[in-house]
UniProtKB/TrEMBL annotation:
Protein name according to UniProt: Autophagy-related protein 11-like
Annotated stretches, region: Disordered: 216-239
Keyword Disulfide bond part of the UniProt annotation: no
Record-linked PANTHER family: RB1-INDUCIBLE COILED-COIL, RB1-INDUCIBLE COILED-COIL PROTEIN 1
Sections of the chain in a coiled coil: 105-139
C-alpha cells in the first residue's frame, strides 16, 4: 500500500517536473528572443544616434539618414519581431521626410536672393508711390479748398481768399498765376502756427491787409514823400488800397534790388483746418 502510494507521488512529481522544465525552456526561449530583439534595437538606436550626430550640416545629416534607411530596408528579415520591423519602417518614413525638407530648403535658398531683390524693388516702388500719393493728396486738398472757398489765384485784393504754400526758403508764398512775390506776414504765420508742433504745409486765409514794399540799396537815402505823390504812403483801412513802404533795409526774402514784393496779412476762415506734414 505504501509502495503504490509512493509510486503515484513519484509519477506526479515527474509530470510536474516535466511541466516545469517545458515552461522553463519556453521562458528561456522567450528571454533569448527578447534579448536578441533588445540587442538589435540597441544596435539600431546606436546607428541612428551616430547618424544624428553626423557633422557637416543639414545636407550631410540628410545623406547619412537616407543611407541608414536604405541599409535597414535591405536588411529587413521576416524573422525579426514586430517592434524591430516597425522601427525600421519609421526610420524609412523619417528619411523620406528629411529628404523632402532638405530639397525644399535648397529650393528656398536658391529663391531667397531673387525674393530679396524683388522685395527691395517693391519697397522702393512703394516709397515712390507713397511720395506721389502724398503730393497728389496735398494738391487735391488745395484744389478741394479752392473749389470750396473760391480761392483767388489771380490778382490778390483785400477780402479775397488766398492760399500760401511753404517754400524751400521757409516762407509762405501765395499761389498766384499773374503776380509773384506775395508773402504771408509774420503776424499771420504766428496766428496760424502758435498751437502746432510743426509748421503747416500751406495756409488759407482771408486777406485783410496788403503792404507793398520795394527792395532798394541800403546806401540810398530816401526823402519823405509828399502826400500828392503817386507812390506816397497809403494805409489800407479795410478797403482794397495798398500801403507803400520803401524801407531800404527791408529785404527778408532775398529778392534782387529794385524788385517789388507784397506782405499780406490774413485772417482765419471759419472752420479752418490747418494741415501739417506727417512726421516719418
Amino acid at each position: 500500500m505504501n509502495c503504490a502510494h509512493l509510486e503515484n507521488c513519484l509519477h506526479e512529481a515527474r509530470k510536474e517536473a516535466q511541466t516545469n522544465l517545458c515552461a522553463a525552456d519556453r521562458r528561456a526561449s522567450e528571454y533569448s528572443a527578447l534579448r536578441a530583439s533588445f540587442l538589435r534595437l540597441c544596435g539600431l538606436f546606436e546607428r541612428f544616434r551616430n547618424c544624428a550626430l553626423t557633422q557637416g550640416g543639414l545636407i550631410a545629416f540628410a545623406d547619412a539618414f537616407c543611407a541608414l534607411a536604405q541599409s535597414l530596408a535591405n536588411s529587413i528579415n521576416e524573422k525579426d519581431d514586430d517592434v524591430t520591423i516597425e522601427f525600421q519602417k519609421s526610420i524609412q518614413i523619417l528619411s523620406d521626410r528629411v529628404s523632402f525638407l532638405s530639397k525644399h530648403r535648397e529650393e528656398l535658398l536658391e529663391k531667397y536672393p531673387k525674393l530679396e531683390a524683388a522685395n527691395e524693388r517693391l519697397r522702393k516702388e512703394v516709397e515712390e508711390k507713397e511720395e506721389l500719393v502724398t503730393t497728389l493728396y496735398k494738391k487735391h486738398q488745395l484744389e478741394k479748398q479752392a473749389s470750396k472757398e473760391k480761392i483767388c489765384f489771380s490778382r490778390l485784393e483785400v477780402h479775397e481768399i488766398a492760399a500760401f504754400v511753404l517754400n524751400s526758403a521757409g516762407h509762405y508764398e501765395a499761389i498766384n498765376r499773374n503776380c509773384s512775390n506775395y508773402y504771408l506776414s509774420a503776424e499771420s504765420v504766428a496766428l496760424f502756427t502758435y498751437l502746432l508742433p510743426i509748421r503747416p504745409t500751406y495756409i488759407v486765409g482771408q486777406i485783410v491787409h496788403i503792404e507793398r514794399q520795394m527792395v532798394k540799396p541800403s546806401s540810398t537815402r530816401l526823402e519823405h514823400p509828399r502826400e500828392d505823390q503817386a507812390d506816397g504812403p497809403m494805409s489800407d483801412t479795410g478797403t482794397d488800397r495798398l500801403t507803400i513802404n520803401v524801407n531800404p533795409n527791408l529785404n527778408p526774402y532775398g529778392l534782387p534790388i529794385g524788385c517789388e514784393f507784397f506782405t499780406v496779412t490774413v485772417a482765419m476762415l471759419p472752420d479752418t483746418t490747418i494741415h501739417s506734414p506727417t512726421s516719418s
